[in-house]
Amino acid sequence: MNRKLKKKIILNIPYVVIGLLATNLGEAWRISEGINVSEKLQSLIIGGGFENAFINPLPSIHPFDLLIGLACVAALRLAVYLKGKNAKKFRHGSEYGSARWGKPSDIEPFKDPNPKNNVILSQTEQITLSFRPAQPKYARNKNVLVVGGSGSGKTRFFIKPNLLQCDSKDYPCSFVVTDPKGSVVLECGNALLKKGYRIKIFNTINFNKSMHYNPFAYINSEKDIFCNHSHCQHKG
């Protein structure tokens, strides 16, 4: 027996008990003397009709009595439903909010079992590089905003760890890094080269240390100019 079925059975036991007891009410009405409602009510209240019906605690199986029991159960169930539908939803213990610090178990479904297939967020938190995880409800945008003052460790604790974890075979990726201090390429460049990356540097301060792009290097004749011009017009 599964848990849901067991829970339904337990919740409906009170209705069954009340319904069986209510059959005695039907029996009391049925055996009371009188030919109209007024006489039967007098017989029930004054003549001891209820006492006679409940002398035997066992439920009655007469069709009329069973119908009365079923009607009582239906009325009770309707009352419980209406009361529950209109009830206020209280969150006891959360009157001042329910926010809390996250636990490792909270982010576990968002991680890939292979550590190299994750974006490193902290020492204990990562998020998978996959845009289609096994369970789609755990798919998340991979944009990360890191906010911190100068010297707070944005490069040391976020940029460098993710650059050095560059050998994911399942999700290979390229990096575009702004390096105002010029230290990232010196400290992480060799590691990227060993993993097969090609490094290109664009230095707007010292062009002697920057790679260049010269479009005229591809022009060897007047025909090349005409071809390039036609290509641009076609693309436009």
TrEMBL record:
Q: Which UniProt keywords apply?
A: Membrane, Transmembrane, Transmembrane helix
State the superkingdom: Bacteria
**Among the entry's GO cellular component annotations, what is one?**
membrane
Segments traversing the membrane: 12-31, 64-82
Keyword NADP annotated: no
Q: Does the keyword Phosphoprotein apply?
A: no
InterPro entries per the record? P-loop_NTPase (IPR027417), TraG/VirD4 (IPR003688)
Q: Name one Pfam family in it.
A: T4SS-DNA_transf
Protein name, as recorded = TraG family protein
Which source organism? Ligilactobacillus ruminis DPC 6832
